Amino acid sequence: MILDYVGVKEINGSLIVLDDVDHASYEEMVEIHLDNGTRRQGRIVQIEGRRVVIQVFEGTHSISLGNTRTHLIGRPMELPLSEEILGRTFDGAGHPIDGLGEIFPEKRMDINGTAINPVSRVYPKNYICTGISSIDVLCTLIRGQKLPIFSGSGMRHNDLAAQIVRQAKIANDESAQFCIVFAAMGVQKDVADYFRRSFDESGVLQKVVMFVNLANDPVIERTLTPRCALTAAEYLAFEKNMHVLVVMTDMTSYAEALREFSSSKGEIPGRGGYPGYLYSDLASMYERAGMVKGREGSVTQIPILTMPNDDITQPVPDLTGYITEGQIVLDRSLEGGGIYPPVSVLPSLSRLMKDGIGAGFTRADHQDLANQLFASYSKVMDARSLASVIGEEELSPNDKRLLEFGRLFEERFITQGSHESRSIEQSLNLGWELLSTLPRSELDRVDPKLLDEFYKPKNLEASDQAKVAAAVDLSPEDLTSQVKSFNEAQ
């Protein structure tokens, strides 16, 4: 028997309360009909005996205690899915907003989903090429991985997100089997237009599924957006055998919406005012990334989040770091120096890259090259700290050479255009060119056989070689002679 419940007991923010409700289920969807003919959606978020609390997605404006009829649907929120979703744009609750009509679904899936059973997981291997050297070489993104980007307010993380969507491809370039699900939460309308226009102009829109929650959309809808995106990704990956990259920006907006929702329910706040279940809530989404036995597809996540006051110890980045397999950190001082993307190399890492690079995946020298670039750039930081104390003129020739290497590394390796895509071979070769500015004796993280093959100082551009020579008080000819003599001695 279908019942409609007339009127409501209480209204509190985006929540309404009904009494004397039988056979209700947690997360069950409801339809709310107003006297003026409008219809709104909600879901049950709390049950206390026969009292239920309903979260209204469109908000409770124009709702009074007596002008509603509430109908329980009898099922959780489901997303209609088919291959038609590729190239389409939806709002945060999964409704089409591109003017192309409704989706004719092959299947409907519960947006809440579940984490992948560890027994059914396949260990992630092979990589996704983003075309960005600092990510592909030093923090390689592996299929099935969850690799967040930690940014700060006002930084160019939106540009980086758009560039990753435009350029990303799987290693063997099976473009027909690769797609992207993009979720934007709490963004301004001009930012949403920028994303849509950028994808359209670059020709990738037909392999992108977009979920957009604007800043003026209901806050509650923001809590649905990443779950709708991940449900679409799971369908494409595990039903259609596609490799799916999910880019979500900004997870801090999601967490703030969750905090507001938790506060309206009267829950006791935890650290930073966020609900005490923030960790498990984030984990319920992040753990939906991975690969499953018997299925060819994969779900890879790049959640982007902004750190309040650039503080990485804030609850959202802190808990995200515990759940995910590494992080890419953006540095405000690098961005202030005109470097894009401003990837801070030393605190960034990808914990799964060791099993998805090397011979058979990228190139045999990849791991050694990455290790050496990390080690050399770490020495650059030490040399800069010393120079700030005693002055650059008092540094040893070796430290001056390191400073010049650091400058070249930031200007030529980290820096690249927002529409510049580099293949993995180009990025690796560029790394070797920069390492060739250092004496061979400094390259202590590389196998000697790889040094014999790839260490070639003569490949350095003449202009850069002159800068290195000037930094260490040598003429270019003397520098070349010393390097040649040293290599012969080795």
Description of the molecule:
With 490 residues, this protein is α/β, with parallel strands linked by helices. The protein folds into three domains: 1-74, Elongation Factor Tu (Ef-tu), domain 3, CATH 2.40.30; 77-353, Rossmann fold, CATH 3.40.50.12240; 363-456, Bovine Mitochondrial F1-ATPase, ATP Synthase Beta Chain, Chain D, domain3 (Orthogonal Bundle). Helices cover 34% and strands 23% of the residues. Strand 5 (39-48) and strand 6 (51-56) form a beta hairpin. The N and C termini lie far apart (87 Å). The relative contact order is 0.11. The mean pLDDT is 88.
Under the CATH scheme, the architecture of the largest domain is: 3-Layer(aba) Sandwich
Beta percentage is 15-25%
Helix and strand composition category: alpha/beta
Label the overall shape.
Answer: elongated
Count of spatially separate domains: 3
Number of helices: 15
Distance between the termini: 87 Å
Low-confidence stretches: none
Could you report the average pLDDT, rounded to the nearest whole number?
Answer: 88
Quaternary class: single chain
- CATH domain topology of the largest domain: Rossmann fold
Indicate the CATH class of the largest domain: Alpha Beta
Helix content bin: 25-40%
Indicate the radius of gyration in whole angstroms.
26 Å
What does the main sheet amount to?
9 strands, mixed
| Strand tally | 21
